[in-house]
Amino acid sequence: MAMSYKEDASRRKDTAEDDKEALTCSVCLEIFENPMRVECNHVFCKACLLALQKAKKPICAVCRSPLKGGTKAIEIERKLEVTATSCSGCGTQVYMKMLRSHNATCPKYREFISEGVKASMKDQHPSLSNVPNRFTFTCPFCNAKNLDQDSLIEHCSTNHTGEYGRMVCPICSSMPWGDPNFKSANLIQHLKIRHKFSYDTFVDYSVDEDEMVQEAIELSLQDRNMNL
Known about the structure:
zinc ion binding, zinc-finger, two-stranded antiparallel sheet, Herpes Virus-1, Znf_RING/FYVE/PHD, single chain, flat, RING-type E3 ubiquitin transferase
């Protein structure tokens, strides 16, 4: 029986999502940048691998085997060059190797981020505007609640080092560009690498909303285009 247009579109969408997941680093949850393959056959961005190797006893973020080796994953590089995905802002099909640079210059993507930032800010009480780290999170390991970003990272590093399992990053999932279903293989390492600053800490709430939103957008774009 011939496949309907809707079924075909759904199948192509699923395939695209599978491709994107296969080309996403398990540590930073971004499309691979300078992918490197280690001895156990898992692949990480070069910067993420270097960060993992700084531990006293480096282990693979996926399988927890001793972290050894690190050679350029040429086949992954080639796949990044020929696999396309859609920009979340303008919908343009972009090869995954170029997605980060596209997002950095796409006006529609900036609008997409802007709307998400405004939506996140509009429900905040004005009296709290001078308090950093207003957003709070729940620890995915033990369900400890009301942790701001810095407290979450410190809590997980102190109380859950050595605990593994694929988990959704509560900070990423709260952001307008975050995928609430995407799980990191090593959440603690992800938190340390991807969340070095808090948006609230860096935004000047004494300026008007348009300036505040623009600065938050700039910070978010810088964060998404870090070599991680």
